[in-house]
């Protein structure tokens, strides 16, 4: 093992204190051995002790605990009735109370039982009672010994615990007002103690998640109970007197054990059923489940609902479109009629204008030929298409005779050239 | 002019004195040759019997035999358990004190009833012990150190001193049994100088006591104690006696538990068989006229006994395990388990206790280590060792040494040490070390300047799971539920940094000596110097 090198940034200082060390504990040391004596003589010769130090050394000493190890057992006194209990009927006595353990009952550990027994022996030993004057006072001591024998032996203790009614917590009376968890938790705990395998979870509280609640009920219903009823057996008589009677009693015991076990199982199932039926969490879960179901159904139907809505919307849209189109068509129709009429009237107007133009221009000085001109213009007008009509009507609108004549002559040439008007029927404009 | 050590037990007592050859101490025998002398007195006619002779009276004359009176000294009747005297003269209430009623008769055969208080019985007993020692050593006994259990109250100790005075045996000091046993064990081969934590289990006849004791710098500190007033060798004997009784009943259809005499015979045979089975594999049980004039004769082997006594043995193991818990320690913290008391010879007990501790813990018992000292004698030898040490002190000095100001000392709560180049914590002072103390270690150092970092150490349990060794192919179909073995180890880790100290100008290949010194005021002085003549020490101080 070696020491590390000094880091370069340590600085010029040689010693740097970081923190104080953890406060020491004052304890007595064993005054034995040469090292102790050396310590003592060093201390005695080297120093004078001030009063203060002496007082300090006596106080605040963390001594090894030699006192009352039995604090957990409490100071239970047996009542007079129990003390006077007939030792022959020891089975009917409350064996835990006999040992002063009625506050612990089935929870008492082996160590506590031993210590409790010892405590009772110290108090009730017949030698001590005898010293006080009474003679036949060992009755209770016999019960103590019986109780100790019973409770210390694990199998006998299981038998006794099975019938230890005082350890059972009764369920709250039905149809009364009580807080579910407050009333039932001790009941569940007391029932759970009969489970062969201590893996049953606790009842929990109002906020326990569903999975845990369900796990609890699954485990609770499935408790494999070790409860048995041997302790209540009738005493089997010695077989020397009457063997048949002995066998009869034995059979009776077996039958009554079975009967009691069956009754207990039925009782437990009824209790568990009642517990479950009263559990507010189960009710909540059921409601939540129902709501969830409805929500699911709602979700499942969403597709169809959407399709229906879409179809309706489409139908509405189609109807609206159709209506609009119809309206537009109607409007268009009305418009074209008007235009046609307008065009017609415009045509009429144009035709009238063209027809009237030669007359207005005084027949270009050829009034004698007026009939021929009118006839020619009539033929020409009949042969015009709309464009030519408007074109010509524009040209003749100037009122200038020469221009009108020129325009009419030009159009007449075009019309004859294109074959729309046979040249033969024209008399003036050739 | 000799001082002796006395182990005063409920069941047996022992005396030890400085050895004749001047080396160490030895346990001495009474005139009957007993080294473990039964703490018993019996009255027959005008005569008083002591030791083994008195114990033999339990069968014929139980009403006039006094046993198990040690715990009654200085106690009031209301506080004690009278059941332990059930098979002998019953404890009675003597104006609040405890006494025994015995019947004596004179030569003419006139009977008279006398009461013997527990204190008187103690006086008689101590007187006999003193006489035995004086006979053996051939010198006057000037004083004794007496070892008793840790739960002896001040009143009980005062009563014991008074009884000693009355018996002419000056009690120099009363020490506790576990520390006496440990002192005897650790005084060999300088074990006292090694900082270790011990469990001392004293398994007696009618009660069992145990203590966790840490040894730091040769000074013993008790960290926890536990007592069981019902567990002990008697329970083993009862189990064995019950077994014999059942066998007998099965064979002869006679219940041997009906009369007190038969019970006493059963018990006597059981004790003998148990002691024999500690040394050899099988023992003969032979009881004459156990019940209805029928003799019983059979053999029992060790395995059968271990089965019969399994319950009690496991309780004893559990008792030790609980004590370690009570001391807030892990079984890994215990370096050695020292078994004291006659029952410790039982091989199964030692192996059971070894089983609950890790392999690193040494269990000191004769069946596991042939060199272990006799567990029956440990306490007496420890007391004698203490007595020889006290020889040079006068009464006043001893009294002053036991004053609280000397005995109640400060113990550091955490280990203090330094961190080496690899970053590991090297403890110099272990936790529970009492001060004033000075301890140094030497470490290698590189050339140039080095850093000494003082830390408090934290202990951490490391668990390594050992995978079971790979199986052979042909083992495959065998069902195996081998659990993987978990190896637990406890390591020191550097905890809080207390200080840094620079040590400068180290020569090539040199060593550095680091010294931690806590003075009586609790100031921790750290100093470090190169191991070289004329080198300068670098130092600093911190407090708590």
From TrEMBL, chain A:
Residues 94-164 form the J domain. GO terms for biological process: 'de novo' cotranslational protein folding; regulation of translational fidelity. It comes from the Eukaryota. One of its GO terms (molecular function) is ribosome binding. PROSITE patterns: DNAJ_2. Keywords: Chaperone, Cytoplasm. This is Ribosome-associated chaperone. InterPro entries: DnaJ_domain, J_dom_sf, RAC_head, RAC_head_sf, ZUO1-like_ZHD, Zuotin/DnaJC2, Zuotin_N. Residues 295-354 are annotated as: Disordered. Residues 295-344 have a biased composition (Basic and acidic residues). CDD domains: DnaJ (cd06257), zuotin_NTD (cd23953). The keyword Nucleus does not apply. Residues 345-354 have a biased composition (Basic residues). It is found in: Cytoplasm. Coiled coil: none annotated. Gene3D superfamilies: DnaJ domain, Ribosome-associated complex head domain. Transmembrane segments: none annotated. GO terms for cellular component: cytosol.
TrEMBL record, chain B:
Pfam families: HSP70 (PF00012). InterPro entries: ATPase_NBD, HSP70_peptide-bd_sf, Hsp_70_fam. One of its GO terms (molecular function) is ATP binding. GO terms for cellular component: cytosol; nucleus. Belongs to the heat shock protein 70 family. PANTHER family: HEAT SHOCK PROTEIN PDR13, HSC70CB, ISOFORM G-RELATED. This is Heat shock 70 kDa protein.
């Amino acid at each position: 093992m070696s020491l590390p090198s000094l880091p370069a940034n340590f600085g010029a200082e040689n010693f740097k204190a970081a923190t104080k060390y953890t406060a020491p504990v004052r304890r007595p040391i064993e005054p034995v051995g040469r090292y102790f004596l050396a310590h003592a003589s060093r201390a005695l010769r080297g120093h004078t002790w001030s009063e203060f130090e002496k007082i300090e050394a006596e106080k605040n000493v963390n001594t090894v605990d030699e006192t009352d190890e039995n604090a957990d057992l409490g100071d239970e006194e047996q009542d007079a009735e129990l003390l006077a209990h007939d030792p022959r009927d020891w089975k009917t006595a409350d064996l835990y109370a006999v040992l002063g353990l009625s506050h612990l009952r089935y929870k008492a550990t082996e160590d506590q039982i031993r210590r409790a027994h010892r405590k009772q022996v110290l108090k009730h030993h017949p030698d001590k009672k005898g010293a006080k004057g009474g003679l036949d006072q060992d009755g209770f001591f016999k019960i103590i010994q019986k109780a100790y024998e019973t409770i210390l032996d694990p199998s006998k203790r299981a038998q006794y615990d099975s019938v230890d009614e005082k350890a059972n917590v009764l369920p709250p009376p039905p149809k009364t007002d009580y807080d579910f968890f407050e009333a039932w938790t001790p009941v569940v705990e007391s029932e759970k103690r009969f489970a062969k395998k201590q893996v049953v979870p606790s009842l929990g509280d109002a906020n326990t998640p569903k999975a845990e609640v369900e796990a609890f009920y699954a485990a609770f219903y499935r408790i494999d109970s070790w409860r048995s009823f041997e302790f209540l057996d009738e005493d089997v008589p010695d077989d020397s007197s009457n063997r048949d009677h002995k066998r009869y009693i034995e059979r009776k015991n077996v039958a009554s054990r079975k009967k009691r076990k069956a009754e207990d199982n039925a009782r437990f199932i009824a209790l568990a059923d009642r517990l479950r039926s009263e559990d507010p969490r189960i009710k909540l879960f059921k409601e939540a489940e129902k709501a969830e179901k409805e929500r699911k159904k709602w979700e499942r139907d969403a597709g169809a609902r959407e399709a229906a809505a879409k179809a309706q919307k489409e139908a509405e849209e189609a109807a609206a479109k159709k209506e609009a189109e119809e309206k537009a068509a109607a409007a268009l129709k009305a418009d074209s009629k008007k235009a046609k009429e307008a065009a017609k009237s415009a045509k009429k107007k144009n035709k009238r204008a063209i027809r009237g133009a030669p007359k207005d221009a005084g027949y270009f000085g050829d009034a004698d030929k007026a009939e021929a001109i009118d006839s020619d213009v009539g033929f020409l007008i009949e042969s015009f298409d709309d464009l030519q009509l408007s074109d010509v009507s524009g040209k003749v609108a100037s009122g200038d005779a020469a221009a009108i004549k020129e325009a009419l002559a030009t159009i007449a040439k075009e019309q004859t050239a294109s074959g729309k008007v046979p040249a033969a029927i024209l008399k003036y404009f050739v | 002019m000799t001082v002796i050590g006395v182990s005063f037990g409920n069941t047996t007592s022992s005396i030890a004195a400085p050895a004749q050859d001047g080396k160490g101490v030895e346990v001495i025998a009474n005139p009957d040759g007993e080294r473990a002398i039964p703490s018993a007195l019996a009255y027959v006619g005008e005569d008083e019997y002591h030791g083994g002779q008195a114990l033999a009276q339990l069968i014929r004359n139980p009403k006039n035999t006094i046993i198990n009176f040690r715990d009654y000294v200085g106690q009031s009747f209301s506080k004690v358990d009278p059941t332990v005297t059930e098979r002998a003269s019953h404890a009675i209430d003597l104006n609040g004190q405890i006494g025994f009623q015995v019947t004596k008769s004179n030569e003419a055969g006139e009977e008279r009833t006398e009461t013997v208080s527990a204190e008187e019985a103690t006086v008689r007993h101590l007187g006999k012990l003193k006489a035995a020692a004086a006979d053996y050593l051939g010198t006057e006994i000037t004083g004794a150190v007496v070892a008793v259990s840790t739960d002896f109250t001040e009143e009980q100790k005062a009563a014991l001193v008074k009884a000693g005075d009355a018996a002419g045996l000056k009690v120099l000091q009363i020490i506790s049994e576990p520390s006496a046993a440990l002192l005897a064990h650790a005084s060999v081969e300088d074990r006292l100088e090694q900082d270790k934590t011990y469990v001392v289990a004293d398994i007696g006849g009618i009660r069992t006591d145990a203590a966790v004791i840490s040894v730091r710098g040769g000074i013993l500190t008790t960290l926890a104690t536990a007592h069981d007033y019902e567990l002990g060798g008697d329970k083993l004997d009862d189990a064995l006696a019950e077994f014999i009784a059942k066998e007998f009943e099965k064979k002869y259809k006679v219940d041997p538990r009906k009369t007190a005499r038969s019970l006493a015979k059963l018990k006597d045979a059981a004790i003998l068989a148990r002691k024999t089975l500690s040394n050899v594999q099988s023992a003969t049980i032979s009881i004459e006229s156990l019940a209805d004039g029928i003799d019983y004769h059979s053999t029992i082997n060790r395995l059968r006994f271990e089965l019969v006594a399994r319950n009690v043995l496991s309780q004893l193991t559990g008792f030790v395990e609980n004590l370690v818990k009570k001391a807030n320690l892990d079984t890994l913290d215990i370096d050695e388990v020292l078994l004291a008391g006659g029952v410790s010879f039982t091989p199964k007990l030692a192996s059971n206790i070894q089983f609950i501790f890790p392999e690193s813990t040494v269990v000191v018992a004769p069946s596991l280590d042939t060199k272990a000292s006799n567990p029956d004698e440990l306490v007496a030898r420890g007391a004698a060792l203490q007595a020889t040490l006290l020889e040079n002190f006068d009464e006043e000095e001893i009294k002053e040494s036991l004053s609280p100001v000397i005995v109640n000392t400060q113990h550091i709560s955490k280990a203090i040490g330094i961190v080496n180049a690899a970053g590991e914590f090297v403890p110099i002072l272990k936790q529970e070390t009492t001060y004033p103390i000075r301890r140094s270690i030497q470490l290698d150092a590189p050339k140039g300047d080095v850093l000494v970092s003082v830390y408090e150490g934290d202990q951490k349990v490391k668990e390594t799971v050992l995978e079971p060794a790979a199986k052979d192919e042909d083992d495959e179909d065998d069902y195996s539920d081998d659990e993987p073995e978990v190896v637990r180890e406890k390591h020191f880790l550097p905890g809080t940094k207390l200080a840094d100290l620079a040590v400068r100008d180290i020569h090539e290949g040199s060593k550095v000596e680091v010294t931690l010194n806590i003075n009586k005021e609790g100031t921790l002085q750290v100093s470090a110097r190169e191991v070289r003549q004329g080198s300068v020490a670098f130092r600093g101080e911190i407090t708590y």
